[in-house]
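Late entry, written up from scratch paper. The run itself happened at the end of the previous shift, but nothing got recorded in the book at the time, so transcribing now.
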Amino acid sequence: MSLRAPEDYGRVLLVMGGDGSEREVSLDGGSQVLAALQRQDVDVEPIDGLAELIAAVGQQRGDRVFNLLHGRGGEDGVLQGAMRALGVPFTGAGVLGSALSMHKAQAKRIWLQCGLLTPQFALVVSEEAAARAAEELGFPLVCKPPSEGSSVGISMVADADELSTAFELAQRHETEVMLESFIEGAEYTVGVLAGKALPVVRIQPARAFYDYTAKYEDDATGYFCPSGLSSNEEAMLQATALAAFRALECSGWGRIDFIRGSDRRFYLLEANTTPGMTSHSLVPKAAAAAGISFDDLCLAILETSFDEVKR
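Output as recorded:
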């Protein structure tokens, strides 16, 4: 992997934390990225949240931004638009790719238009509409806010009796609520880095549902890379991930999540344009399987701030 000399990056503003629901995950990953960049003599300053980042840029304290701010404000096009307006390069997807990916329903609409497979869904704003949509989709289903990450506000709904509680939980985070047909099966994820797909990771949660606890707190969750897929299946899933990534105008780095149904087909679940970088996170695991150390991964992500085209 060809990387630049540390001084070529200038002063890097590593933004993390913020005031969103994924603050702790962002701070955890950010501390590890900070240490990795410092080990490689990159001049880096940690920044907590978007407001502090804009202030630092205004004070000309940095030359580029390593974005590890998850969720709203960091992953939805807001940070990207602010940095574009201020003329500061940043890692990851641009304004359009970030905004399209963050809204799960919009991402699914685009994938469907491109002939890519994703579970059926509905967007609702009231319990009455949710009940009607659930009747059409059928149980079980998944209820979640369409613009949150890390499984925040998500519930698996087994029957009509559970729908009201799940809807209320999701609506604490967002007015719109997405209902999605639940597909039971193994989950897979494909990291994307600089236009290439990383090895597939299969996820085996010890819990019944791959929720926030399973992702970040449960050491019993299993991650398998090699994934156990055949070489043809692995290549197909990687190609689908790249197609899904490009369909949303994403660039730089990211992650595409899938689930495999009982029909043996792979269904797209969501795109992540600023994936986690914690000890439980999936892109570092896939990178390691590809022979990329965590330190080199951090520099490779920083390299994406030099991308000329970010929509």
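The longest helix spans residues 23-39.
(Scratch paper discarded after transcription.)
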